[in-house]
Design brief:
Pfam families: 4HBT_3, 4HBT_3C. This protein has 295 residues and is mostly beta strands. It is built from three helices and twelve strands. The chain is globular and about 60 Å long.
Length: 295
Amino acid sequence: MSASPFHDLKLEKLFPPSKALLVEAAPPRPAVEERRLFIVDEDGGHRPQPLAQGPFDSLHGGVIGGLLANKAEALAAEHGLGTPIAAHIQFLRPIKAEHRLTATAEIAVPGRRLNLVDAFIEADDGLRAEARFTFARDLPAPVPVEQAPAPALIHPDHLPEIVPPLMPPDPWFKDALEWRSDGTTVWMRPRVELGPPGHILPRIIATADWAAGISRPDGWSRPKVMGFPNSAITINLWRRPVGEWIGLTPSSRWNAGGFGLAQGAISDEAGDLGHAVLPVILLPFPERQKSAPTA
């Protein structure tokens, strides 16, 4: 039996310990005053809030992808373009908390069945992120389709919540999601509004973008790289999600060339839902300065 991909996740204790091991609970975090990812100004500009922050000095990829997806899905709903079945999001430059953002979407390729929508995020100094979304209009399948029975699983409501004993002092995007796990799949559902109720992609992107961080190959106890940001994320879905929980079963591979790949199976309470792939760039720790020789 192969080891769990999370067996070395020790620093943050992302998964709860076994019942035989007692761990002191983390102190309660002060209440988050602002429960929004963005404040939207009258002219449509978006100002990031603390919950939009990622683990580094920039917004989380799940937040950026969610904003792009919300613009695309709103446009698709307005024109009856169908159900989102694919997304490719490219993070061009870091987006900082002080940036004021303009997000737009446009129909790139209209079609009878498939429709492509492009979305963009700009700051004052230019383009920061872009995405292409594929929408498909529903039509009856030309051949009979037998749906596989839903797998027997413990509903996420009945799984232990992941409460890490070590937390950053300030709120960030992880606090915008509720986390639960059975030790193999991580389940997430939003604690704050990620988009209009009818939108599909924002909460899927919010979950899938954690694939690299959850499954880092070097482990959390003795990390060999300082960071591993994903330059993009690609998601493919074969049906609409069911329920409010999204599951992620991730894995990662790195190579000596300084880059790698994270991926994750996406699921919901009805079973398999789709897949995500994230190319990652490995960032080395800064070299320590050698002490000057003493006389």
